[in-house]
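Q: Given only this backbone (169 positions), what sequence would you predict?
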């Protein structure tokens, strides 16, 4: 099962550690070397040049709403949301905004088999807009958070889940 690593009861302690460490590492800039170098250099230049900047983390609706069988993933995304808020507070004085996108279910190579299954169709029917996300659904929210259109926003989350988090339990 491609998604077994998400499940708290199926995942080994080592796998849980990798999930939590992986999401925390991404948040702290432990990205692939080239990406990390660009992010760190941009932040240094923003501070040194007294220039505004924007950092956008990608968390998940599972950071604010739990579901069965995804404890390690949900905990790591909740931590990323809190880290986003803490970083926003610390960097605000440098006019650097830090916010997070909270995507809902988006079809990816990792979850395609599940989302296109009968069980996935049942999940889709519980989403108020009756569809899963496409990458382009994140374009507008990302541009808002990264551009001057969102210059008054820091330490916030923008949910892009087609109404999933407001659906009845």
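A: Predicted residues:
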């Amino acid at each position: 099962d491609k998604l077994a690593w998400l499940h708290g009861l199926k995942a080994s302690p080592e796998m849980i550690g990798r999930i939590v460490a992986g999401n925390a590492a991404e948040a702290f800039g432990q990205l692939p070397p080239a990406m990390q170098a660009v992010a760190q250099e941009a932040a240094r230049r923003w501070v040194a040049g007294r220039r505004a900047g924007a950092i956008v983390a990608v968390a998940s609706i599972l950071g604010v709403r739990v579901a069965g069988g995804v404890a390690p993933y949900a905990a790591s995304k909740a931590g990323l949301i809190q880290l986003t808020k803490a970083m926003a507070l610390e960097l605000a004085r440098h006019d650097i905004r830090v916010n997070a996108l909270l995507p809902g279910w988006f079809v990816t190579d990792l979850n395609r088999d599940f989302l296109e299954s009968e069980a996935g169709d049942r999940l889709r029917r519980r989403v108020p807009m009756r569809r899963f996300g496409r990458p382009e659904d994140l374009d507008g929210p990302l541009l808002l958070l990264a551009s001057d259109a969102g210059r008054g926003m820091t330490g916030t989350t923008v949910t892009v889940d087609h109404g999933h988090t407001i659906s009845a339990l």
